[in-house]
Write a structure and sequence with these properties.
CATH architecture of the largest domain: Sandwich
CATH superfamily of the largest domain: Lipopolysaccharide (LPS) transport protein A like domain
CATH class of the largest domain: Mainly Beta
Shape: globular
Radius of gyration: 34 Å
CATH topology of the largest domain: lipopolysaccharide transport protein A fold
Largest sheet: 26 strands, antiparallel, barrel
Number of domains: 4
Length: about 750
Amino acid sequence: MAPILNRLALFFSLFLLSSAAAASCARPWLLPPRSLPSSGPTHVWGVNLNATRTQVTLTGDVELLRPRLYLQAGQLRWDRQNDVITARNSVRAQTDQVMLKTDLLTWWRQQQRVATNAVIFQLRDRNARGSAARFEHRHKAQTSNLKRAQLTTCPLGTDDWFFRFSDLKIDQKAQRAYGTHAWFDFYGVPLFYSPYISYPLNDRASGFLMPVFESYQSPNRTSSSWIVGIPYYFALAPNYDDTLTVLQMQDRGTLLDNEFRYLTPRQHGMLTLSGIQDEIASSQGITWTDAQGQHHTGKTLDTRWRLKWISQFRLTDHLRGQVDWHEISDPDFYADIPLESAYRTASTLPRTLQLDWRQDNVSAFIRHRDYVRLRNAGYNYETRPQLGITWQKALSRTWRTQLYAENSWFEIPVAGHTKPEGQRLRLKPTLWARWNRLWGDWGATLQMNAVSYELISHAPQKRLDSAVPTVSVDGRLIFERDIHLFGKPWTQTLEPKLQLTWTPYVDQETQPLFDTGTRSLSFDNLFALNRFSGGDRVGDTLRLSAALTTRLLDTRGKERLSAAIGQAFYLTPRYVTLGANRKDDSRYSHIFAQLRAHSGPLFSDNVAEINPADSSVRNLTNRLAWRQDRFTFLLNHQLANNLQSNEEQTLASGFFWQPHGRWQLGAYVNYDLKRDLRSETNYALGYDNCCWRTELRLEETKLADGRYNYGFQFVFVLKGISTLGTPMSQLLNEKIGAF
């Protein structure tokens, strides 16, 4: 009987698309959960036994226990002549998948058929329950039929919503379920009806998905417009599918958005195509500003579209590749049409085509990287193409070597610029030695950076070459002691580190700056061999870098708190720079300080660059996260080039809070502190009711050219089934929750 009852659980899982939703309320059980044996004999108990040649009847608190089945009933009768087992009077049954209650359960053993009337059920491993007026399963045909069935993920005692069906058929051979006269009821109000539904038992089938509903104001509009979308999912094959969404925009017309996904043993990816006959664009034109600051109006542009292709593939065991490609009809497409929120404020979309090859100690790549220019796009170098190869080998447990070679072609495909373009060949051989002990480690590095340029435009010299060596030695000691803090035992470390680096001066002023800049703020960059990123400059130096780090480790050796401070001392002036200055004769660098904490719900990482001359903070990064069950707070603060003409300071912060009961509040703001303006804001008010939640979110985005986008989004979640819109908690993680 247990395999037959398990068939019933298959239907109850139909609407749980991926996994059971985490309920915010306690989950009462239909029956007290009981552990079931996986093997062994069948045991039957009862108060009274009546046996004849044709039937056996047990009455009075009957219990049956067999592998993966426990059954209780007032009466259990076995009709020997017809081989039928009937359980009556308060039947309670449990398998490892489902619990059920009914007053009558009949099992025809020869026909392998089971039937129940007025059954109430609950899944053991998922938040789902329901009822049916009648359930019948035929084992040989592998079909199940339910009459007047209903399903919900709400806990017992909460009947907020149900899916109701007049008739349901589950076909195990076809791996599908078929329903007629399907209703979705919310608080007793029918919101959705379908005369026929076909759904897969393997969680994939063609059909309508949850609709899209939001309000949006594009930059060139003075008022918001409504957007309603109906997605339809095509389950084309087990390894590829397609989703077609018809979006009706109040003032622009009908947009078709199609997303095709594929997955094979050697590749996976997504191809998205979107198009609209824009009623506003056809009557008013499209206006945008190009990289030269010129304004353009496309009076005849009415067909607007986009293409996005994201793919990763494996051609052989050693050859892999990736595609990240975008095409759009006009620079304002994503600002006017809210398909992808991440692109609304962007000025460019990077595009990449790349092949990677790896075998043993050798790896190589060929890459094409350029940009799709949106509003106010500036000058960006593009590599068309870039080829690189790396060979590395461990010579011993101590010695290791590597050779990196790269050939790149840089150009700016925008008329009117005056920057040099051309080819760069780069070679970087490196030799390392490293010794490790329990009390510390030390090592040495020898590196050569050689570049050769063949320039074709906007450069006084067409051929340039340079080769710059770098030698570095470093060492670190580790001291430990046991301490007690906050009533707990800890291990505290003290780790002094020194590094001596020498790079001679080589004149590189005439070399272009294709991909080179000053390294970003990081404590580890205090010990970088080159103070510049990219391949066009190697900074000359004779430098002694010193740092002192202390860490607090718990009894498991996990770091909970660390603090570090460091500074570089220059023994000679530096002449290689990115700007016009020819000499930097300061004797010491700025001071770098780092404080990091990770304990319980708190994570904090703070790095500061301090000018010792006036004790001012030149650069600062603060990241903070506090995550608990009912409260999440995230913060990312960036201060760059403080007290300089190019100073920038931004603050991205947000919270998600359930202050009392089921109400939820959320907010996100990205604030430009230097310009005193909000780049982006989101406010959300939500209500969580155990098996569903709803959220209203308002958003405002300021574009780089001063225009604003406004939007309104309605989020509705049926837990364990589907989600309409993007909840605030997910938005926070996408914006600032990656650390």
